[in-house]
Design brief:
By secondary structure, the chain is of the alpha+beta class. The protein has a single domain, classed as Roll (2,3-Dihydroxybiphenyl 1,2-Dioxygenase, domain 1). It is about 25% helix and about 40% strand. The chain contains 3 helices and 8 strands; from the N terminus they run E-H-E-E-E-H-E-H-E-E-E. It has an 8-stranded mixed sheet with strand order 2-3-4-1-5-8-7-6. A hairpin with a 5-residue loop joins strand 6 and strand 7. The longest helix has 12 residues. It is globular and about 45 Å long.
Length: about 130
């Protein structure tokens, strides 16, 4: 089994501050990690839930994939992050099984991780992020 656990559930939002405030008021949740990922044009706020995260993400520039997703589909579930021990091995296994990679090779992600994205086509309509800590 290449998947070790759910790393995060990503929720795209227009207003990151409002989303953070909502989670604080509704659940008493606190942001554990916050980061701007320039390469992807996003800002994220991670809320820890057990050993996983809720990742609230918003666009930092109009050409980012999140900006496009927000414009096309509005706010809501964006992708699921699966934690793996070896991102390259998991990516190769998914491609061999018929997945369409968005990242041909793993790349740096937030909080020092290594990541790769898989296109929803070929993954039953779900955008998947492989995350190696």
């Amino acid at each position: 089994m290449l998947l070790t656990e759910i790393d995060h559930v990503a929720i795209a939002v227009h207003d990151l501050e409002a989303a953070i405030e909502y989670y604080a008021e509704a659940f008493g949740a606190e942001v554990e990690h916050r980061e701007i990922v320039e390469s992807d044009g996003v800002e994220e706020a991670l809320i820890k839930v057990a050993d996983s995260y809720i990742q609230l993400i918003t666009a930092t520039r109009p050409d980012s994939p999140i900006a496009g997703a927000l414009e096309k589909r509005g706010e809501g579930l964006h992708h699921i992050g699966y934690r793996v021990d070896d991102c390259a091995e998991a990516l190769a296994a998914m491609v061999e099984a018929g997945a369409r990679p968005l990242d041909e090779v793993p790349r740096p992600g937030s909080r020092g991780t290594t990541i790769a994205f898989i296109h929803p086509k070929g993954s039953f309509g779900t955008l998947i992020e492989l995350v190696q800590e």
